[in-house]
Specification:
325 residues; alpha/beta; 4-stranded mixed β-sheet; 26% strand
Length: 325
């Protein structure tokens, strides 16, 4: 029996030029490089220029993903942007990216699941591609989280950065086994009773302002370790693989302590875990494709590898995806 799966055929990434170090932050808030690294593992993050909207980052990452896939913008028929920091309330950032890429008319929309957004967006795009509704889809995670920071709150402003990552999804035929190339399974979750743990204190229909990011850090950490571990186990079960079968884990780059905590809970081999949080910080929906791109570029992730993606963000949302490259 043959099945159609959505395969990742190209990955691209883009980081703004400006580097914001821990030492830079120590000049504006009561913190230090030692304090930040000890609690988060972060050394630096990127910050978009004042005249550089999220769509600029997304468009450049998309161009690079298309180049890696050997595709052109006029072949793209679906664009999904996962973002918490859109250019405008509307239109969707995906529509703006479509215009900037020079892509033709096709479906284009945004998804908002905060740090879990890229995994959610992959699942939606998979439905289009696997059902024959898209032949060349762009899934982009793009964020400018520094726009949401309260620079007097050292518990949050040190954690986040800006960036974008993108993948091209195309249909491939498989035999319906775990050896197939493509997206194999998803586990998506949300607990709306936990909205008070990680949120932005503003919005168009409440305050009429953008607002600042607020977080109850110790509670988020506790839920993250438990919830992410559950989603990983569920995604592996749905794919018919065991955790020991996975070649590479590409987690959401929120905090080195969370990544380590999940690994310890599941008994993961730390040598199989891709971490970029030290250099990117938490780029929300962009963090997974940025880390995936890093590991492909340096030769760690190769064609045929079984890769597990996972994330947790405000909502609380969380999820995992198993795929074979």
């Amino acid at each position: 029996m043959t099945v159609i799966r959505s395969a990742v055929t190209g990955v691209g990434a883009y980081l703004p030029e400006h580097v914001l170090t821990n030492a830079d932050l120590a000049e504006v808030v009561d913190t230090s490089d030692e304090w930040i690294q000890e609690r988060t593992g972060i050394k630096e993050r990127r910050q978009a220029a004042p005249d550089q909207p999220t769509s600029d980052l997304a468009t450049e990452a998309a161009r690079r993903a298309l180049e890696a896939a050997g595709r052109t913008a006029d072949e793209v028929d679906l664009i999904i942007v996962a973002t918490t920091t859109p250019d405008q309330t509307f239109p969707a950032t995906a529509a703006i990216v479509q215009r900037k890429l020079g892509a033709g008319v096709g479906a284009a929309f945004d998804i908002q699941a905060v740090c879990s957004g890229f995994v959610y967006a992959l699942s939606v795009a998979d439905g289009f591609v696997a059902r024959g509704l898209s032949r060349c889809a762009l899934v982009i995670g793009a964020e400018e989280m520094t726009r949401l920071m309260d620079w007097t709150d050292r518990g949050t402003c040190v954690l986040f950065g800006d960036g974008a990552g993108a993948v091209v999804l195309e249909p491939v035929q498989g035999q319906g086994t775990t050896e197939d190339r493509g997206l194999l399974s998803f586990a998506l979750r949300c607990d709306g009773n936990r909205t008070d743990l990680l949120y932005v204190d503003g919005g168009p229909s409440t305050t009429g302002t953008v607002g600042h990011l607020r977080m109850v850090g110790n509670q988020v950490f506790r839920h993250a370790v438990v919830n992410i571990a559950e989603a990983i186990e569920a995604a592996c079960a749905a794919a018919g693989v065991s955790i020991s079968d996975v070649d590479w884990f590409v987690p959401h780059q929120a905090n080195q302590r969370i990544i380590r905590g999940v690994g310890e809970r599941l008994g993961l081999d730390e040598n199989k875990v891709v971490t970029t949080v030290a250099w990117h910080a938490n780029t929300s929906a962009a963090s997974i494709p940025l880390a995936l791109h890093t590991a492909i570029e340096d030769g760690r992730i190769k064609p045929g590898d079984l890769v597990l993606l996972e994330a947790m963000g405000g909502g609380l949302t969380w999820g995992a995806c198993a795929l074979r490259m």
